[in-house]
Amino acid sequence: MRRHPAPRFCQSPARRGLRAAAALALALSLAWPAPGLAQDAATLVADRVFINGDNTLVAEGTVEVLYKGARLRARRIVYDQSTDRLSIEGPIALTEGTGTTMVADSALLSSDLREGVLQSARVVLNDQLQIAANELARVSGRYTRMTKVVASSCQVCASNPRPLWEIRARRVLHDQEARQLYFDNAQFRIGGVPVFYIPRLRMPDPTLDRSTGFLVPAIRSTSALGVGLKLPYFITLGDSRDVTLTPYVSTKGGRSLAARYRQAFATGEIEFNGSFAQDRIRPDGTRGYLFGTGAFLLPRDFKLTFDVELVSDPAYLLDYGISDDDRLRTGFQIERTRRNETFFASLGNYRSIRAGEDNAVLPTLVGDLTFHRRFRPEILGGQGGFTLQTHSHRRASDVDVDANGDGVTDGRDVARATARADWRRNWISDGGLAVSGLLAVTADVYAIGQDAAYPGTVTRITPVTAVELRWPWMRSGGPGGASQVIEPIVQLVWAPERRTSVPNEDSLLVELDEGNLFSLSRFPGADAIERGFRANVGVNWTRYDPAGWSIGITAGRVLRAQDLGQFSTGSGLAGKMSDWIVATQIARADGVSLTNRALFDDGFEFTKNELRLAYTDQRLDLGASYIWMVADPVESRPDPTSEVAFDAGWQITDGWRGLAEGRYDFTAERATRAGLGLGYRNECVAVDLSLSRRFTSSTSVQPTTAFDLSVVLNGFGTGRDGRSYRRACAR
User: Fold this and answer.
1) CATH for 13-209, among 3.40.1620.10, 2.60.450.10, 3.40.710.10, 2.40.50.140?
2) What is the DSSP string of 623-688?
3) Which residues contact 191 (CB under 8 A, 6 or more apart)?
4) N or C: which end of the chain has fewer CB within 10 A?
5) Bridge partners of 525?
């Protein structure tokens, strides 16, 4: 029993005594046996409680009833023992433990609050969807039946009493157990204007996660397919499975049916997406695709993942806006990562849908296995590592000739086994000089088929040793209180100059950057190993200013005893002296940031340059980038690359947000991609509108313009929660 303070004025000792007496009378009345009302089933608190001569219990003033998680507030309650009914005068507020709130002028309810009628009622479901009705009836504690209904999740204010959208219906039935809303003779209105009529409509209430039924439709328009409508239908198959079917019809003869299947297991999950279509783009047959993913936890901390990517023709994914991927993989991976150990194994089949590429002469079946373990040698100290790796790939072609003239026979197959041991130890002198010793030995065995330029089996052993010196200096309390760190680094590396002839399949694209400036080898794969004696020299400098901005610069280059001709000009590593690498990062407190990576020679002739400038604040996100690369036939780049790209996001108002992106190729003198987007969010609706244009073309795809529109009504189902966008009414 709790005491309820009198509203709007202080209580005198005499009044507190009267309330205590009233509470005692209430306790006696609840102990009074009554049909349908257990002795301790409910708690009632009121300013005044008395019993009339006709054995009715009357509670007046500030009245509250608590029963099994439900809370009822009213101005006056009359309990009739003979009928086991509560007659309630409002304003009434009934809140249930499920998150449902009911407000009414008057009510006649059963003593357990599970049956009865409320007049001039309003229901708020999960603090989102509001339903106003002339009359509300509660049935069996499960159903709520409402008549002459207006439903909306939009904020309604005195200055703007008309919601953005509303559903008017003759009757609505809310099944609280199934968490469904059933509308009879429903009329959908936007801004008070009727838009369409539905004789019967079923919608999930805001607490329901999954339910069979139609999802939000979407409109998509492309220059190739015309204007089309997507109408997804969701089907639950129990608690752990579901299917979504999405028919798509367009004005230029496009007809497709897409499907998504999902299933959850005790140790993992799978998802498959696919579709088949017929259209005028390829009128001679059926088109389609199938993508699938899965992930499972295995015993002993292993994890299994798989992916499936299949498509009927190279243009299908772009024509239907599914994906920009142009190389597809179907395969699986098994991996495990522990504190000092990692294991990874994969087997996959690759298919290229790029224009001009022949899958018969590309490595399509690829298998990899890697085991790596770190340990601490007791005798040498420091940290050691051991790696065991296998790799194999196979081409579909059986031709033992180089038809393309690229140095690779059309049918060459390769298998490799690699064992590597490495060791590193660090020492720090009294003056703060950090010295590191590094040693690594790699042994490879190659099995090469269908290429007469190589013997069937090739073995290779490559030792590498290095000494690294770092001398970090730090200064704090400088001008303006700034702190600075400068760290010169010199790394001396030796590897044999001799070269064992093996096919280079995985180390064709080489790039010098701040991440590999101090690496034992700049080649990204295992087939090629950087050889000879060289010095990697550079310096890192960072400055932190108390005003909130910082700058970081890494600069350096590679000096070689002899040019062994391992690198192309475009990599920035060619010659006895590589290009200079200068990487700069600047970040300001006002949201401006700049990132630049440049490769240039002693004459300041640039090989590569990448620039990114961005600005971010609470309402605006701007970004622009530029890239320049010299022509390099070794990297399949016959012409220089010169491109600029930009992206922008602008929070126009609290509800409206605009997006823009674009890319322009200066070498080809044309735009490659452009897009605009506009989105609106508030507590009751989410609208997304986008327009994009792809300017590139090939033998399989043509330039395409796409338009997409999606409208989601918040407040139905748990995936449509707009409470974070709720506005306050202006006073």
Assistant:
1) 2.60.450.10
2) EEEEEEE--BGGGTB-S-EEEEEEEEEEE-SSSEEEEEEEEEETTTTEEEEEEEEEEEE-SSEEEE
3) 162, 164, 165
4) C
5) none
